[in-house]
Amino acid sequence: MREISSSTPRGRAFRRRVMLWGIALSCAVLIPARSGLADEFSQVSTHSIRLMRGTVVIDTRVGDIYIEGWDKALVEVQAEKVVRAGSEKKSRHLFGRLRIQLSTDEEERTVYLKTIYPPRRPWRPFRGESRLTVNYRIKMPSDANLELKCVDGDVRISGITGNQRLKVNYGDVEIDVPSVWDLRSLQAHTWLGYVQSDLNSLTQDNAGFSRNISFYNPQGKQEIKVRVRMGGVFIYRGSQ
């Protein structure tokens, strides 16, 4: 992925986004964070599964996701579990409670990637989830479709020419579109955040409540739909 530079439109968008979150946070009630009670421990594993032309379905809760298209009929997943615990011994217990599930249908046309968290207790459904994160780096066939749901995390996608359906509650979504000429439609929306696109001749950007980006080309094939609750949506022409 390209680095953010303060001199580029993307860098300026980043600065404005920081200002936006600063305004939002100034209206919130701040609760001091406890420090020194836990350390971070990480564990990395690699998984792969065959995929003919089809769809990759991702369902996860907390963690960043980086997705890159390639020319192999294979989905390769590098999963980094990150836990916060008071000791290495306690971290091993938490690692065991997080599972990475990678599966496919019989025709090898749909791959499912899911993060399995510990069962929630009705009286404290979110207890301990802030200590459990899984970051993904994924390579998938460039012409496969992508469906993704993430509760809290940033998503970065490049080199995917298949259709995309993305839903993120809290986080930023950045997509590098390989070919504007092959893009048929784009519909992107954030309930509170920042949107930016350079698909048209002029860069479009906006910040605030209920912001949208749209694009339509009847000669194209690819369709992209993005929904973000709180965060940014950034759509750029790919570097190819």
Gist of the model:
The protein has about 240 residues and is mainly beta.
Structure description:
- It is a single chain.
- The chain is mainly β and 240 residues long.
- It has one domain (9-237).
- The chain is built from two helices and 14 strands; from the N terminus they run αββββαββββββββββ.
- Strands 1, 2, 3, 4, 5, 6, 7, 8, 9, 10, 11, 12, 13 and 14 form a 14-stranded mixed β-sheet that branches.
- Strand 12 and strand 13 form a beta hairpin.
Helix content: 10-25%
Number of domains: 1
User: What portion of residues belong to β-strands?
Assistant: over 45%
Please identify the structural class as seen in this structure: mainly beta
SSE order, as H and E?
HEEEEHEEEEEEEEEE
* Distance separating the two termini: 13 Å
| Count of DSSP H/I helices | 2
Overall geometry: globular
- What is the number of strand segments? 14
Overall residue-averaged pLDDT value: 83
The main β sheet shows up as:
14 strands, mixed
Low-confidence stretches: 1-19, 23-36, 123-128
Task: Supply Rg.
Answer: 19 Å
